[in-house]
Amino acid sequence: MEEVSNEARSKVEQRPALSGNVDVQKPPLPEEARSLSKSDQKVLGRQERYKQTKLQKRAQDKAMRHQETEKKRREWQEKLANLSEDEVQKAKEERMGLRASRKDERKVRKDKLIQVMADGQNIVIDLEFVENMKPNEISSLCQQVVHSYAANGRAEVPCRLSLTSCTSTVREQLKMHYGFESWLLHKEYKSYIDVFEGRKEDLVYLTADSETVLETVDKTKIYIVGGLVDHDRWDGIAAEKAKNQGISTAKLPIDKHMLSSQVLTVDQVVDILLQFMNIGDWEKAVSTAIPPRKRVASDPLEGASKQTKCDSDQMSSKRGDSAMDAMSEVGDEPMANELAREMSIVDSASQSASFSESSVDGLKS
Q: Judging by beta carbons within 10 Å of its beta carbon (0-12, 13-18, 19+), is residue 108 exposed, middle or buried?
């Protein structure tokens, strides 16, 4: 058995490197894992290779950001070299003023998050379903969690965001990718029933299967978003869970604003709630949080090409780069790194496949 395992490992090590210069080799299984079944060993092996890939990808992204920083610094020096002494002084003063302004804005955002952690509107992401998920589903859910956190950091009126049933399975993955331990939110091992003990009547589980429509966001209520990825596989499970626990359910009033399925991702639900808390209008909240291809066009003459372009622009700035967008408001790299220590958003930027030119310019100009 050991000889077969070594032969298989040798074949994996001889495979060509993956695209993007990420050379992932099959890591040896720990001694205790060799007593597992072949199926369990394969699952463990995939998880280890996934971790190794992510770590190497992070190192590559860090190197790329460093190169981009050096490029911006050279361009700045070249710009100054072509200016007169007075113009150089003016340019430096303008830059320092911009940095000071961004630093003040960052402090305001941080202070808001600290304040709402004490008395803000409660929104909970329920992670209890994770234990029955596949590794790729857990990874997708973690991406949605980080987008939710970044959206809350950008919100004019943020919420008191909590992660419940946040066990080691999720914590380890979030810590590996996103500097999870420094996030300004509540991270609970316990379920929301235990976390909000004595407030069962205030719990409201948000699910499209509910017969109750959420008309407004009530400050006294605790809104729960189910941490689900493959909704076809989990059809009706959130509503059934709430029913068994004897807690209320509600669905977002988005029927008339949606063209396609009303199944939303975790971060889309959180973003819609945040938008409504800020502007008090469900239609505008949906239009801000949901890509146009899934929405009813407010303009009947809006063409498909216009929708496609708008969809592409919005999706790149709001979902794939949500954490980078939050960073783009910070300014230069030193300040960005400081924000990373305070709010731990910077690591999530390295997970985006690509990011917009405006985000990079805002981050390092």
A: exposed
